[in-house]
Structures are given as structure tokens and as C-alpha cells.
Amino acid sequence: MIWLQELLASFWFPYIIALLAALLIQLVYYWLIFSRLAFYNGKKRAVAEQKEAVSVVICAKNEYHNLVKYLPLILEQDYPEYEVVVVNDASDDDTFYLLRELADKYSHLKLVNITHNLNFFSGKKFPLSIGIKSARYDLVLLTDADCYPTGPKWIESMQAAFTGKTEIVLGYGAYFPQPGLLNRIIRYDTVSVAMQYLSLALAGMPYMGVGRNLAYRKSLFYKEGGFVKHYKIISGDDDLFINAVARKSNTRIQPLNEATTYSRAKQTFGAWIRQKKRHLTSGKFYRPEHKLVLGLFGFSQLAFFSLIVFLAIVGVDWMLLAGVFALRLFSQLFILKKCMIRLKERQFLLLSPLFEIILLLINLILGFTGLFSRKTQW
């Protein structure tokens, strides 16, 4: 075992130990946490004893073209008792007239019209608060004006996850597949984020949800004071609220395809970066334990790739580095593939290692530039 003795005596041995530590942390996340979503058995899930009335709440600001295409798909759900509350947030297009026309056709559509820009909160929080307050039923299901459900069982599937003491159900908001590299990167990013927040919820540590597909009880919203704790922050109407109120005992997930919503991904790199920057601003306000868990994964991820490159440059045995890299790559692709099957995603598995590095660099840059960014409007 001469090679082992040489390795132990090598100047680079501490760096190799650091690489192996980063690998171990990554493997723990993939096989002990992310595997919970990968091997989630939806057929064995609990089902609500009865179909509870639901209020779907949507905020719309100059969303005429999206509402005319997608709102009928929500208004025509196969569900016995529900309403759709649409908050028209001082739109200056034809949104109001479209909603008034649809309200004449669909009796369960409730229009809440904000005629002046009276946004006392930042971003979407004020109109969303108005919509939740206007909801008739305690179970509130949220989505966006540019989203549409996979089929007529969306409300039923999300509501079915409310059992026992459940107050929050986290759904999956996917992006519609389109040609082009950017669309694949965005969808990979979406799956990666979902793999984290859905898996951690299954592990008893729910920390966020996405407003494109999220349900909780109106009574919980009132009990926690709504968005008051973070009303000055532009983003966070979904993840910061869930981060504050979600617990192991009151939160469940619903990753089944019938419960998924779809929307159109950003069409330009700049628009996507602005969206990511807005979403990343809320992460620093998460609870300390959540920042620790998420930060450890991100740090170990960065350390792993940095040490692999560094040790390859200084000439450490390439077979050792190749074996370490292959072990993590296999774990990543295997678990990711299982999660993609669960979430009905496709077309980017083989490119995911490249996308992972790209997103790692983008998140680092955005995290740094975010310290100097100005506020943006919804």
C-alpha cells in the first residue's frame, strides 16, 4: 500500500480530507433527505374524510392575456363547492372588464377590484391579504394569474391532503417545457428547489412554499398576523409566511401530477435573473435552523467542486478524484431522476451536472450583488 503511505504523507492530504467531508455531507443530503421525495409513495397518502369547501385566491395586475386563457380552467374544476376570488390590483389594461364578464357567466367567481394604487405593503402582499380576507371559506388555495392546473382535479387533489391537524399543503408549481437551453435551466432550477423544500417538509422541517401552488387555512393566516412580520420585504408572500408558520405537525405536501400547476417560464435570461434576485432576497430572513440546513448543503456543494478542481490542478491522483466525483454524480443523477419522475419533469437530466454548476455560480453572484440591489416592484 505504498500509494496510501504517499497519500498520507502528502502536503495535500488535509485538502483531500476536506473533499471527502464535503462528499459525505452531499451524500447525506441526497440519500437521507432528498430521497424522501424521490421514493415518496403517493398511493399510501392519507385522504381527507370529506371534501371541504375551498376558496381559490388569485392576484392580478395587468394580466388580461393570461386570465383569458387560464382562468376558465380554474373556474371549471371538477369540485362540488368552491369559489374563485380574483383581486384586480389597479390594472390599467382590460382585466376588470374581462373579470366582470366572466363573473356574469360563473356565479362562483368573486371579483375584488382595487381601483387605486393603495399598496401599503410591498409587492403582492397587500392585494393577496385583501383576497384572503374576502375569501368565504377557511381553506384557501393560492395560485398566480399566469398559472393553470394540469386538469380538472387540481382543487380536489390539493384539498385531499388536508387531514387531521393539517393547516398547510405545499404543492408543486412547474414551468411548461419549451424549446431552448434557458427553459431547461429554469426547469432544472425549479426541480432542485422543489426537491429541497418538499423533501425537507417530509423530513419534518418545512421551510417554504411557492405561491404558484400553495394552500393553507385562513384561520392560520389570521392567527399569525398575516404578512405583518415581514411586510417591508418585497418578496416572501409565500416562502416567508410558510417559513414562519409551518411545522412538522401542521404541514403536508402534495406532489402528485393532478395537483400540479404550470406557468410559462421567463423568455429572456435577464428577466429570469431579475426573478431569481427577487426570490433570493427573502432567504436571509428564514429561521436560523433553516438557514443552517440550506447553507450547509450549498457550502458543501461549493466546497466539493472547488476542491475537485484545485486538487486536479495540483496533480493529486486522478483516479481518486474521478472515483469521488463519480460517486457524487451517480447519487445526484439517481435521486434527481426519481424526483423528476415523481414531478413529471423531463428533457434535462443529462445536462443537470452542467446546470448545477451554472446555478451555483449564478446564486453566488446574485447573493453578493443582492447586498447592493434596490427595491423592485411586483
List the main descriptive attributes of the protein structure presented here.
378 residues, alpha/beta, Spore Coat Polysaccharide Biosynthesis Protein SpsA, Chain A, 2 domains, seven-stranded mixed beta sheet, three-stranded mixed beta sheet, 13 helices, 51% helix, 12% strand
What does this structure look like?
By secondary structure, the chain is an alpha/beta fold. The protein folds into two domains: 2-39 and 289-368, no CATH class; 42-267, Alpha-Beta Complex (Spore Coat Polysaccharide Biosynthesis Protein SpsA, Chain A), CATH 3.90.550.10. Helices cover 51% and strands 12% of the residues. It has 13 helices and ten strands. The strands form two sheets. Strands 3-2-1-4-8-6-9 form a seven-stranded mixed beta sheet, with helices on both faces. A three-stranded mixed beta sheet has the order 5-10-7. Helix 2 (13-38) crosses helix 11 (288-313), helix 2 runs parallel beside helix 12 (318-343) and helix 3 (64-75) runs parallel beside helix 4 (95-105). It is elongated. The mean pLDDT is 90.
Give the strand line-up of the largest sheet.
3-2-1-4-8-6-9
Which secondary-structure class do the elements indicate? alpha/beta
CATH superfamily of the largest domain: Spore Coat Polysaccharide Biosynthesis Protein SpsA, Chain A
Order of helices and strands: HHEHEHEHEEHEEHEHHEEHHHH
CATH class of the largest domain: Alpha Beta
Question: The CATH topology of the largest domain is what?
Answer: Spore Coat Polysaccharide Biosynthesis Protein SpsA, Chain A
Q: What do the pLDDT scores average to?
A: 90
Number of H- or I-type helical stretches: 13
